[in-house]
Amino acid sequence: VQLVESGGGLVQAGGSLRLSCAASGRTFSSYAMGWFRQAPGKEREVVAAIARGGGRRYLTDSVQGRLTISRDNAENTVYLQMNSLKPEDTAVYYCAARESLFSERYYLKRNEYEYWGQGTQVTVSS
Hints:
Largest sheet: 7 strands, mixed
Oligomer: single chain
Distance between the termini: 37 Å
Order of helices and strands: EEEEEEEEEEE
Low-confidence stretches: none
Number of strands: 11
Number of helices: 0
Helix content: under 10%
Radius of gyration: 13 Å
């Protein structure tokens, strides 16, 4: 599967962005999806994850209440709605996918994912 992210950009603190990740292929509903981010000089970390069925979702503590992950299996797309952005959210955001036998399991580790997008830059100015 090929993943293409879009929607990144420069925004002021308190602003919003919506990241999209479009997946190729006809079996998108077989894949659990995740969003990771990597800030300069830091390790890539999980931000959000969603099971292939869409019913179970995960958000890391620092983004709860501000970010939302969702997916549209008919459109082969996963989204990350980002509200109330902070300067510390500045990073390159990556979409990731892996096949999953379990409809309501999400994955949080980098090495659990098979496919990655090229990343999209999000910059939040103070």
